[in-house]
Write a structure and sequence with these properties.
The protein is an alpha+beta fold and about 425 residues long. About 25% of the residues lie in helices and about 30% in strands. The strands form 3 sheets. It has a 7-stranded antiparallel β-sheet, with helices on both faces.
Length: about 425
Amino acid sequence: MPPEYAEALQEPPASLLLAVRNVADAEVGITEVLGLLERSPVDIVEATPTGELSVSRAQWELEVVARFEDDDEPQEFRVWLEAAPHAESELLAGIDWRGILPEDADATRDAGWAVGVSTQLGERPLRSYHRQACLLAAVAPDAVLAFDVNAATPHPARWLRELAESRTPPSPSTLFAIHSVYDENQDSGAWLHTHGLLRCGSIELEMLEVPRDGAGLMGQLLNTVATMFLESGVPEPDEVFMPGQDIEMVWLPWERGLDKVAKDSLGTLADRDGPQHAGVRGVLFAPGRGLLGRRKYEAPSKHLQTMENNPLLYVSSMETERMALLARERLDQFRGLHERFREDEEFVFLVKLGYLVDGAESDSNEREHLWFIVHEIDGDEVDATLTNAPYAVSALREGQRAPHSLDKLSDWTILCGYGRFDADNVGELIRMIADG
């Protein structure tokens, strides 16, 4: 790995979250925020004003030390006040962010101030990020919008509140965003790239020369690779790794990677308009074999046909456990939506159930997680049809309809006209339905 990459991964930037508060002219003072911290469910060990500002836009800053349940050591934060970003800012302008409604933009436009919380995510970035969101919700109880600065992504205020109220950490994909850049007037493919991974001690990732009609599937593959790097570490450049069955990939530092793509591709040097698209970034390729056995670097879209066939993408046991915990925590929301929309042809309800693989012991974690379309929910049981062919569970077959116990639940998903929703973002769907 290039020395500058290794150094940057050892000293990642802080994670920055902002909440736009429902206040216009009156400046939010330190005294008010200290009172909010004192009354919050977060165990505040220390909160001290500091004259040394680490955020250039800050009006004031607090150094905060907080202790959370099950943590051996307290976590350090910075809390600050800055002028609220306007609805016309680069984070909102011209982009249709899912879950952001017109009234959110209006409230942001009318707000005067935003409160920020920063922290180092450390060796357990997902847990630290969850703690960071909890603290931000405590100092912004009237938030109208939240911004993840590192991921350059806005979120509705409900996202922040639900994250703070949840016992289960969010999905690893919450730590980063995948941006898709394409030119409607040219057939130069899409440029997919991440923002937010570097703060977690991982390189940012990119795919170039992605067919526009395949950007969704390739985005799923990019998401899988990013999560893999977060949980298992970053492999060396040009080292083959497998994010899924029969899917081989490598990465190269972006400066080298651009030499392997067509000069007219989006994402080449002319398209990199600032430091946010440089630095510690890796371009993903599908490895091939060229002349004389030398490495050949092919576009990741080589795997597009494989992705169309619903391949087995690898998910760590840690993430599988997290998804199962959250799916069970928010199962009542799934039940309620199914009860309301099960007769609506635009809605499809699916559950993922973990079945022991052939030959596994009864107390084993060797499970294959399979998707089922839900027809009926009766207590702790679902009447459902298996949607894909199992690899290692011979007792089940694709298309088979039968009752199944929800004791095996590891995830659930709702497909509808609003998009695809799971336990991590079901609150967005509920709000969209309520707002008509």
